[in-house]
Design goal:
Blueprint (H helix, E strand, L loop, with lengths): L1 H13 L2 H21 L4 E4 L8 H10 L2 H10 L3 H10 L2 E6 L7 E5 L2 E6 L10 H12 L8
Parallel strand pairs: 1-2, 2-4
Antiparallel strand pairs: 3-4
Helix pairs in contact: 1-3, 2-4, 4-6
Length: 146
């Protein structure tokens, strides 16, 4: 209930963008990832990490999930990593990371976390950087501290 109310609050602040993001962009990204990786992890956004920062939420909404689909599409071109996506990732969680401009990408309990400093008017995470970080996590390499 709390997440729903917060999403509604941010949605009101950012317009219909959050609703369209949830209903359109997330399923589209899941389909693209599924086609490339033969795995269709759930994708969610931890909207409460944005607090009342509607501009940051708008940064994510406006930027979309192309970086994620592209990154995983590239990862899954490697047959061994493609198999690991299905084994190691059942969910992808995006959240606002205050204090770091580069995404922090890590795996815990089959959840791939991508924390990024989303800012309206700024580009989203670099797909090549995210690709390399995902590949490293799938190979068992730990994420560097920000």
């Amino acid at each position: 209930m709390h997440v729903f109310l917060l999403t509604v609050g941010i949605a009101a602040a950012v317009g219909a963008g959050v609703s369209e993001f949830e209903a359109g962009l997330i399923p589209k990204a899941q389909s693209e990832i599924g086609a490339a990786c033969d795995a269709k992890p759930a994708i969610s956004v931890t909207w409460d990490d944005f607090g009342d920062d509607a501009d940051a939420a708008a940064g994510l909404v406006d930027g979309g999930l192309g970086f994620l689909s592209s990154a995983l599409g590239e990862v899954c071109k490697d047959a061994a990593l493609k198999g690991e996506v299905g084994k190691q990732i059942s969910k992808i969680v995006l959240s606002q990371a205050y204090g770091t401009a580069d995404p922090v990408v890590y795996l815990t309990q089959r959840t791939l976390h991508i924390e990024y400093l989303w800012m309206k008017g700024q580009p989203g995470p670099d797909a090549a950087f995210v690709r390399d970080e995902i590949a490293s996590r799938l190979k068992g390499e730990e994420a560097e501290a920000p």
